[in-house]
Structures are given as structure tokens and as C-alpha cells.
Design a protein that fits this description.
Length: 261
Amino acid sequence: MLRQKYVIPIFLLVVGDPINGVNLTKTVCILRANSCLRLQPSALNVRNVLPFRDRHTNETGVLLCNGPTRDLVPIPKTCVTLGMNDVVLTRPVDYLFELDKGTPGGSGWLQNHRAIDEAICGIQKFYGFNRLAPNFGPPANSLARANASLIEWTGTPSYKIRPLVQDVGRYAFGSSSSTAFVALQFALYAGFKRLYVVGCDGGSTLGHSKNIIREWVVAQDFVRSIYKNTEVMLVNPTQRMSALLQDFTQLTINVASSFTC
């Protein structure tokens, strides 16, 4: 039996003329996926994300996800690291992204919120805010204790694939499948020339994994169309992730077994 092949190209549609870099009529869509996103101007991101634009131009970064391979890969100390959820419980990172509270016993903020709040990042800690789900992220009273900056992402929290956003310094971040894609949008905005992705081994279930893979297809088209000189590489994905990758004709993100920065 032939495997189903997924083709989900990305298309950017801009309507109207921007005013001071902010335009309420800008929309980004994913063709054939019935998914569009009206770009949402964000004062939070102007204050807390815009200052990081091109800060890491031509540098190499490492994005650390939640999968089991994350802690099996040695990370050179010269790399700039971007982590998510409970990664700070096992290793220090330069940037940390906490978008959702999660559930007790999971990998999110509730897993060990006091330790996550008290963890010190090399550069910056970001906690997420979503207007459509204001209680989805870590509570506001944790910001001061965590010394974290608030960033805004948009879209109803779900595993539905959604477009990514280029100008995250002025608009809310796109995507909703995984915190990894918010960290990815930030890394691209910050100017990294090469980004190694470690521990992004798919979701907790097969269905979740397939949704995340579909979002990686979107991410690849996003990188190819907007960040043509940036290379994104998956490092030692699990067998299940590798098998799922083969189902997507459009997904040709490079895979590496080791790396240096």
C-alpha cells in the first residue's frame, strides 16, 4: 500500500499598505491546508522581541526540544542555545520559552514551576501570552519571580497547523502545534545562519507526531521562502521521527549526526 504524501506549500498574501510597519490587513496563509492567520500587532513583542532582531547574525544556534534524544546529544559550549519547557531542569540555556502551563507530570511549566521560575538563563527567559486563551500560559504573578519577558503568540491553542510569522518583533508569533515553532521563529528573526534542532522527536502520540511533522513542512517552506541563506538541521531524530519524515515529499530538512558551533 502506498504511503500518503503530504504537500503543504506556504503562501504569503499581503493586502493594503503598512503604516509604520504595522498593518491590520496583513494575512499569511498555508495553501491546501485551509489555514490563514490575520497578523496581530503586538505591543508586547515590540517591547520584548524587537530588540533581538538580527542580534545573532551569522551565528550558530541549537534549539532544544522535549524529546528523549535531547539529553543524549552533547552540546558544544560555544553554541547559543534556545530551550523550551523543562529543559532548564537538566541543562542551562541562553534562551528559554515557556508558552503554556502544561499539566502536572508533563514537560511544561507546572512540572516544576518554582525551579523553572528560578532558573537563570544566559540571555533571556520568555513566557507566553495568548489573547484568545489568557490563562493558557504561566500566570502573570510568576513573571517577576522568573525575571521573564512576556511574548505574544496568536491562534487558538490546538494541534492544527498554522502559518508562521516573519516580523515577530511587531506581530504576535504564529503556529500552535508546539512551543518549538515559536522558538524557531525567534531564532530566524534573531539572525542565526545555522540552527541545529535537537530532541524534536515528534509528539506524545502518533497523531500528535503527524501534526508536528506537517508544521515542519510549513516551517521548511517558511525558511526557504524568507530565510534562504539560513540552514536548519535535525540532529539524530528517533526512528519514528525518521519514518514519518519519509512520508512528506516536501520535507527535506537536513539531518545531522553531530555538529560544532
